[in-house]
Amino acid sequence: MAAITMKNIVKQYGDGFPAVNDVSLDVQDGEFMILVGPSGCGKSTLLRMIVGLEDITSGEMKIADRVVNKVAPRQRNLSMVFQNYALYPHLTVFENIAFPLRLAKKPDEEVRRRVTETAELLELTEHLERKPANLSGGQRQRVAMGRAIVRQADAFLFDEPLSNLDAKLRGQMRAEISRLQRRLGVTTVYVTHDQTEAMTLGDRVAVLRKGVLQQVGSPRELYEEPANLFVAGFIGSPSMNFLPATLDSSAEGTFLETPLGRFGLPDKITAAEIGDRDVVLVGIRPEHFEDASLVSEEKRARGTVVQAHVDVTEWLGNELYAYVPYEAPEDLAAQLRDLSRELDSDQLRTQAVVALDPASMISEGQEAELWIDTSRAHIFDPATGENLTRDEERVAALGRQAEQARLRQRQAQAGQAPTGQAGNGATQAKPDQEPPTSPD
Ligand SMILES: Nc1ncnc2c1ncn2[C@@H]1O[C@H](COP(=O)(O)OP(=O)(O)O)[C@@H](O)[C@H]1O
Ligand SMILES: [Mg+2]
């Protein structure tokens, strides 16, 4: 096992385009780190530089305490799982998993022991003699993982390993990978463009945009305290709504004038912090709206009630989505459209998506009263994208909480999973003592 430390990593391909631009990122020993971002943002390039399949233009890549910039891939002792599992069709599951051990010319006895252990861990024992063609997608994915973990690598690297699977299987495999990583406790870097995978799998998530690192934090930190407009829009589904707003100060106080109505300024920001910006973007997640008629008096007082024209509704049983179009100045509307395109989303246009209690009777074409939990709103600078309402103290507290949770979880696992990484002497339980010989 090993930590992976990246310092000012840059990758320029032939035409000088920086696919990865000055990324500094520390993956701790045993940590599960997710690299996420839209297609083309440089995730695979960064992963390939860790493994050594791609040269590093500048910066320093360290694995454990060794600088590996010039170290050949096979000398780095890392294991990679690709999107297309790359199994050998003519070999059995056993031999597919055994492949890296055969390559390393390990003795038969050791190969058998380690493949058997790995197969047990992945619940592949009964399939060991079958060929990949006869397996389901999920089983093939497990064989690919088996081949990665059988070698006792210092770290696992995954490049979108689940993107070829259907939604249901993806959910199952997600749970399995998560369980396996926690059980083995091996440092893992996992690339995906899917924000759900990012939110559910990792200890921490690193968000990339056009080769530049935007934010690194626990899923909860990214959701509750996004650093900027891009992270706020990328994390969460459906995406956060962004409403243009101007500041209105009067004797009664300071308010935000938005296309959906007038809100009180959230407590976490002062008018002075907004300064002389003519316009800001107010970010409100769909789940922070509610049908005002279903909100208690006490809760009502915490937020703001607005009148809104509901254009379309979608009743999903467990949730009711309502779409509320609004007007925005053309320059901001254009900016929101660009952001939406960059996020590969067809949302975020000048239409708020709100998630209501399915008990709500609000229907299409209605003027409805919506309650907004304005205490949870974020305010962004439209020019820089910066989140002006980010609470650094809370960010630090969330970071500590996530780190403690990770350590607790790993300790619990270490206590109950004596096998550790398949066949890894260092983490394996000591062989049982000889049973006391019975007196005869
Ligand atoms: N071999 C290459 N030569 C030139 N440009 C490349 C090469 N590989 C990737 N790129 C470019 O680098 C950027 C990042 O690519 P990649 O790391 O594959 O993104 P992601 O995995 O996030 O989708 C893209 O703009 C892509 O076109
Ligand atoms: Mg990729």
From TrEMBL:
Keyword Translocase: yes
GO terms classed as biological process: carbohydrate transport
Protein name: sn-glycerol-3-phosphate ABC transporter ATP-binding protein UgpC
One Pfam family it belongs to: OB_MalK
Annotated region described as Disordered, given as residue ranges: 402-440
A GO molecular-function descriptor: ATP binding
Keywords: ATP-binding, Cell membrane, Membrane, Nucleotide-binding, Translocase, Transport
Every ABC transporter domain range: 4-235
Compositional bias segments (type: Low complexity): 402-429
One GO CC term, this protein: ATP-binding cassette (ABC) transporter complex, substrate-binding subunit-containing
SUPFAM superfamilies (alphabetical): MOP-like, P-loop containing nucleoside triphosphate hydrolases
